[in-house]
Every structure is written in structure tokens, then in C-alpha cells.
Amino acid sequence: MLKITDLVKRYGSGDPVLKNLDLMIEGESVVSIIGSSGAGKSTLLRCINRLVEPTSGSIELNGTELTHLRGRALRTARRKIGMVFQGFNLVDRLTVMENVQSGRLGYISTWAALSRSYPKADIRRAFELMERVGIAHYADTRADQLSGGERQRVGVVRALMQEPEILLADEPTASLDPKTSEQIMGLLRDLARELKLPVLINIHNVTEAKEYTDRIVGMRYGRIIFDDQPAALDKAAMDEIYSGSPHADRSDPLKEAS
Amino acid sequence: MTADTPPRSAAPQGTPRDTWSRPPFIANPALRWAVYLGAILYFGWVGVTMPIDWGRVAEGLGRAANIFGGAIPPSFERSGLLIDGFLESLKIAILATVGGVLLSIPIAFMAARNIAPLPVFYLGRAIIIVARSFHPVIVAIIFVKAVGFGPFAGVLTLIVYSIGFVAKMLAERIEEIDYGQVEAMRAAGAPYLSTLVYAIFPQIMPRQIGLSIYQLDSNLRASAVVGIVGAGGIGATLANAFGRYDYDFAFAITIVIVGVILVSEGVSGQIRKRIQ
């Protein structure tokens, strides 16, 4: 269970990007976060695994408070949070297997990582997962030889290698063509069911959000203004999420109050 | 249109503009002409006040003719000495490259702004700046004083020289890496060293290899120069030949140096092309 309470993130001295945000994710649901660029979706996701430092508030994952962890404790907590990136963030010059095993770096020693002596159990798990998403035959191929959809599959497997308790996906399909994009969304949904894993997906494509996720959270300029079943997302809700400009929203106190 | 718009753009409404000239390098005309005039005056002043004694130039021409006369034909009689000198230069260059590159890697990480904390970054940059600020000949003079004549002084000199170049270029490459890969490792809970090994080394490896090969080539050239001040290698042989007025032998050494550097440039260029 992920429980976010009163989360604030402010860059420098400006207006906060996240404004006293509360969010609760229970069970193995697939939740999508929608909202226009600059709404704070990415910041929210990155606050959860502390790639971005929250300014204040609390983030609790299965009973562990994440916001004040440091050093080894933070790394141990991060192992339990998988992340899939928009730009895949694979290491281009390493093989697919090395990329997949890099999801285990938090578990194995630097020496084992350097000498590529991965534990047998990890190799078995890697092959099983790669088989599951259809990239096992690429194990020895360099990551930059793969197509976009294949690369994102590597990204997903790398995250799952962590044996995560939650999976974060930051616009996982934004760099992909429509067909591949649907395949990846389907894959995320199916894996969530199979592995009983809660998944939190930032996404721009509302149609995909409606089709592949169980719950939609709509953000507008640092606040959650919609949180319901996909069916409840009607035209009025959409207009509210995507209307306005960041500037008007931030400088007009009347709108903030409404 | 506001009053301070330059007249050349103040074309009447409706008339399409068809003239354009590139904005001058320095916008203020007074300053522009002052800079041009200042530069011309300075160069003129330097030319007039430089102490050139044309009488000595004339005498020198005669002496130069003497040297070149003595140098032709080049003498390869003592080729044993020549080969020994070159082998020593090669050893100096290889040892200095290995040592310099190994030391450069941690220094480059220290001097990369996106990886190192600020105090470490300043320390790393300081090491590079010190290593770069002295010409190898000056460094060689210091090391020859410190550890005595011979190839060891040459190795130490070229290690400093290698750090100045390799660490600087490598640090710049580290600053250009795709940080997303680092972020992915951090998100997986990877410790610091594992993150370096997986997310950064693969990205900088091609540049690292290219730099090492370039530096080997460069060290071979520099080893001939630092030998002249007593740091061993072919430079020492060359300095001795000059000292004993053996201009024909000195010329032979010079020819071989040029030949070896041509070959090493060709080889290193080929290797670097292959690994890009």
C-alpha cells in the first residue's frame, strides 16, 4: 500500500509543483495519472523513489516512511520500487542481459556486478521474465540494437528484476508508436495481475489510460482534481483537467480558491 | 515602431524589406574602431621595438649553413645508439601512458561537475589545472633535479603531462553522459560504485580508449623533447649528438624521429577510427 500525505515539492523559491497532495494506492490496482505537461505528474512519481527530494509531507510504502531515508536505508527502500522510464534509460553499450541484471544492482556486491558473476537464481528469473515479454532471444544482443518496443520491454524486465512492491512508469509509451504503445500498456496491465503488483503510470494518452487502467487520477498544476473509475471520466472532467494555462493557474488566486 | 530602432529597419509600412546586413561583431561603432586601431597600433609598436639585431641574423645564417653542411649526408653509423634511444623513448611513453591514464580516471571523475560534490570537483579541477599549466620541459627540469638524470624522470614528467590532457578530456566526456542511465541505476537502489560501473563506464569507454591511444602517440613525441633536458630516451641521444657537434648523427636521429611519429600517428589514427 502506498500512502502519500500532504506532499509538497517546491523547486527553488517559486510556486510549489506539488501542492499538499494526498494519494492512496491499495492492492494490485493499475492507476494512471493524467494531466497536461507541467501538472507535476513526473515530479510526483520521482518523489516516491526520491529521485526528486520532496519538500515536505509523507510517503509511506507498506509501512516504511520513505521521505527521511538516507544512504543504505534509502537504497534498500528503492530496491522495492521499480521504475520504467519514457526514454527507456537502458545502457546502450551493454547487452540485454546486463541491462536486465542491472535491476539487481541493489542486491549484489559491486564486485559481482563488475565481474558479471550474477547469482543463478537471478539469471533464472531474468530468463523467465524475458521469455514472458518475448525478448529472451536478445539476451546477448547490445541494447542499442533493439527497436523501441523491445527496448521498453527490457526496461520493464529490469524493473521487475528488483522484485518490486510497486512499479512506477513515467510515460512509458510516449516514445513509442501507437501499436507498440498499446502492447506495452497491455503488458503492464497483465504483469500487474500476474505478479499482484500495484502499478502507477503517468500517461498523456487518455484513451489508453481508460482502456488499460483500473483507476484514473487527474492532476492539474500540483493538485489532484479527479480520482475515479475510468468510466467516470467524462467531458467535463477532461475539460477541467486539461484547461487553463500554467501561468494563469499559478498567478490567479481566484482560480486557486475555486 | 519605437524611436531607438535603427533607421535601416525603419522601412515604410507595406514596402517589403529586401536588404539585410550581418550585425557587426561589436555593436558600438566607437568601441569597434577603437579595438581595431588599438590592435594595429600594438602590433606596429611590437614590431618597431622588438630588439632584432640584423647583424647577428646575418652571422647566424653562416653558422646555420655550417650546421646543415655538417649534417648532410646524415650518418647512421651509430645506429645501435639510435635504436637504444628509441627503445628507451618507447618504454618511457608506454609506462607514462599506462600510469597517466590510470591516474586520470579517478581524477576525471573528481573533476566532473555532474558526478562529484563541489569540494571534490574543485580539487579535481585544481589537479588538472596544475598538470596543464606547465610545459613538459619545465616539469622535466623539476623531475630531473628531483630524481636525477634518466628515463625515470621522463616517465614522471609524461605522467603529469598525460593527466593534464586525458583527465580534462575524460571529465568533459563524463559531463556529457546521458544521465537517464544513472537515474535508472539509482532508482534500482544500486550503490555508488556499481552505478559508475554500469551507467557511466560503458558510456565513456570509447572516448577513454581513443584518448589513451592518442596520448601514447603524444607521449612518444614529447619523450623526444623532455630527453633534451636530461629525462632519457631519444631526446638525450639527440642532445648528446648536438653537444659533440655530430651534426650528421643528429640529422639521422631527427629523420628517424619524424619517421616514427608519422608511423605512430597513422597507426593511432587508424585504431581510433575503428573503435568510434
UniProtKB/TrEMBL annotation, chain A:
Domain ABC transporter positions: 2-246
Transmembrane intervals: none
EC number: 3.6.3.28
InterPro entries listed in its UniProt record: AAA+_ATPase (IPR003593), ABC_transporter-like_ATP-bd (IPR003439), ABC_transporter-like_CS (IPR017871), ABC_transpr_PhnC (IPR012693), MetN_ABC_transporter-like (IPR050086), P-loop_NTPase (IPR027417)
Pfam families per record: ABC_tran (PF00005)
UniProt keywords, alphabetically: ATP-binding, Cell inner membrane, Cell membrane, Hydrolase, Membrane, Nucleotide-binding, Translocase, Transport
Signal peptide limits: none
Superkingdom assignment: Bacteria
A single cellular component GO annotation: membrane
A single MF term (Gene Ontology): ABC-type phosphonate transporter activity
Annotated protein name in UniProt: Phosphonate ABC transporter ATP-binding protein
Provenance organism: Mesobaculum littorinae
Automatic annotation (TrEMBL), chain B:
GO cellular component, one term: plasma membrane
Subcellular location: Cell membrane
Boundaries of every ABC transmembrane type-1 domain copy: 86-268
Stored InterPro entries: MetI-like, MetI-like_sf, PhnE/PtxC
Molecular function GO terms recorded: ABC-type phosphonate transporter activity
Membrane topology summary: Multi-pass membrane protein
Keyword annotations of the record: Cell membrane, Membrane, Transmembrane, Transmembrane helix, Transport
Region (Disordered): 1-21
Pfam families: BPD_transp_1
First-listed, main subcellular location of the protein, grouped into a coarse class: membrane
Record flagged with keyword Membrane: yes
Transmembrane segments annotated in the record for this chain: 30-48, 92-116, 137-164, 184-201, 222-243, 249-267
UniProt similarity note: Belongs to the binding-protein-dependent transport system permease family.
Protein name in the entry: Phosphonate ABC transporter, permease protein PhnE
Lineage: Bacteria, Pseudomonadati, Pseudomonadota, Alphaproteobacteria, Rhodobacterales
